[in-house]
Write a structure and sequence with these properties.
- The complex is a heterodimer.
- The termini of chain A are far apart.
- By secondary structure, chain A is of the alpha/beta class.
- The longest helix of chain A has 19 residues.
- Helices cover 26% and strands 26% of the residues of chain A.
- In chain B, a hairpin with a 5-residue loop joins strand 1 and strand 2.
- Chain B has nine helices and three strands; from the N terminus they run αββααβαααααα.
- Chain B is elongated.
- In chain B, helix 4 crosses helix 6.
- The chains are: A alpha/beta, B mainly alpha.
- At the A-B interface, helix 1, helix 2, helix 3, helix 4 and helix 5 of A face helix 6, helix 7, helix 8 and helix 9 of B.
Chain lengths: 485, 161
């Protein structure tokens, strides 16, 4: 990782600053505790990094200088990103040439070094200009495969160059015979597997994003990955049918736009996440087996009430349902054995019936105009409501009270809002908002900006919730538990 | 199989950094590559083996892990897996760090693997500021440098969700 990276040299008297930092570190250690993570021997830290997905591992670099300069420079993780050369993956940029040249020269170095320590995780991100640098990328991919790479992350895009060529970078066949591979992430490449044998017995995680791959090649690919547990397919070109035998698949993430058939024959599928457009097909036809599902997440999925009901009907074991940004939904009804239900950013929603007897957690973020209909046994459920209205009016407070009435019987009610003004009902309205909600015992407020004192909030709320026993107010670093007597 | 276990019925004594002595069956101690190497060389099992870097509380945990893994046959992999996940559950960070260091020192690969994974799980999906807070990592960047490093690593949060 280190060779290809810009180094940020401290600009001002670095030795002075280091000494200051040392003094500060000692002080701080006594105050708050010791940094045992950074104090671990480097081989253990590398081991920890290898347990993380590449993106989380890279995210430890900004922790401190030691992480960036010492821990990472000896790490068995190598990621070459043209962004370090200020080239922009998303548009044509002349700085790319420098990065490509570096790829070539680094590679000669690597090939020369006989006892190179193994690479566990390897990644490249760059946009190719014409075909000029394809060979350099191929070389690196082969290098990683020869070093028995376990995790490969390739984001290789082609931008319009002088050759006017927009054909995607074709991934070298050697990747599909890399028996050590446990995770493969691909962005914007071309996979053509007509006469290639796929042998990826260790592969557990496969992510394809914007990849060009035919339905046939996909089936071929999946056929060679018997251990796959996590599969993510999004925005792929040429892929209409997602078909294959994935006996061990546990988790599936799909963008359903353009896809008309999904058949994966897994007996162990536990969670799915869908996005995209379902407007031209029926999920009940789309999927042949959903009986083992425990979790469904629908994110920015365009589907109708009927389609959702059919999807839920086919998943009798469902425990978690998360719906986010599905604007087409108006009325939904959740039964089954659902333990966790979460709904956010569903602008069209009018009525939500949550009739599960097992409900443990309910989260709602959106407008207060919604009507919730819940069973009486909310006693065992924790409810979280996030409010962010455009403007506060008398009508808004009336609707809020109506919403709170449904959840007053819950075990713990959490209200998250940008300002405390949203939960302090205007004095002039109080009389018209009666009767109070006696059932609520535990309330938690998560407020972004606090404008009054905690005691003023208690005073402002107690008339509405006279049965309140505890109130927790959380705002930034403030986390105050108030016992109401 | 049975006879080999009987042969291994020998015991040896380990001494923790705070002076507590642990009597351990040999086949349990063999889970540790360090101890295995010591026993293979001329080190007599009659001697007390000092482990100056490991306190009694951590050593007791380590030996609990070794015993479970030494006693279970390979066919009970599922049982071992659930033991492993229970073993680290609810463990505080201090104990976890002691454990990872002990596993590293004693060369107990399985234990090192699960302890490292547990620490990794704590880091995963968190912004680096939060990781810093949890582990008390001192931020020695200037704000400008930190911004530059974060900007470089922005790719990690783009493209793939």
């Amino acid at each position: 990782m280190p060779q290809n990276r810009k180094t940020h040299k401290p600009k001002k008297s670095s030795s002075q600053k280091c000494r200051n930092n040392e003094a500060k570190t000692l002080e701080k250690k006594e105050e708050t505790g010791i940094d045992r993570l950074s104090d671990l021997p480097e081989p253990i830290i590398h081991k920890i990094l290898l347990c993380l997905p590449l993106s989380d591992a890279i995210n430890t670099e900004p922790l401190s200088r030691r992480w960036r300069h010492s821990i990472w420079s000896s790490s068995p993780i190598l990621f070459l990103d043209e962004y370090y050369f200020e080239a922009n993956y998303f548009e044509y940029d002349g700085k790319r040439r420098r990065f490509a040249k570096l790829l070539m020269s680094l590679q000669k170095q690597k090939e020369g070094a006989s006892n190179y320590s193994s690479i566990e995780k390897f990644g490249i991100r760059m946009a190719l200009l014409g075909h000029e640098w394809d060979a350099a990328v191929d070389g690196w991919v082969k290098f990683a495969v020869e070093n028995e790479v376990k995790e490969l992350d390739l984001r290789i895009k082609r931008v319009l160059g002088l050759e006017n060529c927009l054909e995607r970078y074709r991934l070298d066949d050697c990747v599909f015979a890399c028996r050590s591979l446990t995770a493969l992430y691909l962005d914007y490449c071309l996979i053509r597997l007509d006469c290639v044998t796929v042998d990826l017995p260790s592969l557990k995680r496969l992510m394809l994003s914007e990849v060009e791959i035919s339905s046939n090649s996909f089936r071929h690919l999946i056929g060679g990955c018997p251990s796959v547990e996590y599969l993510c397919v999004e925005f792929c070109r040429g892929l209409l049918k997602i078909e294959g035998s994935t006996r061990n698949l546990k988790s599936l993430k799909l963008n359903l736009t353009d896809i008309y058939w999904v058949s994966l024959g897994s007996q162990r599928l536990e969670s799915v996440e869908f996005s995209g457009d379902l407007s031209c097909c029926d999920p009940a036809i789309l999927f042949d087996k959903l009986g083992t599902l425990k979790q469904i997440k629908l994110k920015n999925l365009n589907l109708t009430d009927d389609q959702l009901q059919r999807l839920l009907h086919r998943s009798p074991m469902l425990e978690t349902l998360i719906i986010d940004g599905c604007a087409g939904l108006e009325r939904i009804q959740v039964r089954q054995k659902i333990k966790r239900f979460s709904m956010s950013r569903c602008r069209g929603i009018v009525v939500a019936g949550v009739l599960s007897a097992n409900l443990e957690s309910l989260e709602y973020s959106g407008d207060v105009t919604i009507s919730f209909c819940c069973r009486a046994n909310l006693r065992s459920a924790e409810v979280r409501i996030s409010l962010d209205p455009m403007e506060l009016s008398a009508a808004w407070f009336f609707r809020l009270k109506k919403l709170l009435k449904v959840f007053a019987k819950s075990k713990l009610l959490t209200l998250a809002c940008p300002s405390d003004q949203l939960v302090i009902f205007p004095g002039a309205l109080c009389e018209r908002l009666l009767p109070p909600l006696h059932d609520l015992k535990h309330l938690k407020l998560e407020i972004r900006t606090l404008s009054t004192s905690c005691s003023a909030i208690v005073d402002g709320l107690i008339w509405l919730f006279p049965g309140l026993e505890t109130l927790t107010i959380k705002s930034g670093s403030i986390n105050k538990l108030i016992k109401v007597t | 199989m049975a006879s080999s276990i009987e042969n291994n019925n020998e015991k040896l004594t380990l001494k923790s950094s705070d002076g507590e002595e642990f009597l351990v069956e040999k086949h349990v101690a063999l889970q540790s590559t360090l101890l295995q190497n010591m026993l293979d060389s001329d080190c007599s099992s009659a001697d007390v083996i000092p482990l100056p870097k490991i306190d009694a509380r951590t050593l007791a945990l380590v030996l609990g892990y070794c015993k479970k893994h030494a006693d279970a046959s390979s066919s009970k992999q599922g049982e071992l897996n659930s033991f492993d996940s229970e073993f680290l559950k609810d463990m505080d960070m201090g104990a976890l760090f002691n454990l990872v260091l002990a596993a590293n020192f004693m060369e107990i690969k399985g234990l090192l693997d699960i302890a490292a994974q547990k620490i990794a799980d704590t880091i995963k999906d968190k912004p680096h500021q939060e990781v810093r807070e949890i582990f008390h990592v001192e931020n020695d960047y200037t704000p400008e440098e930190e911004a530059a490093v974060r900007e470089e690593n922005r790719w990690a949060f783009e493209g793939f969700p």
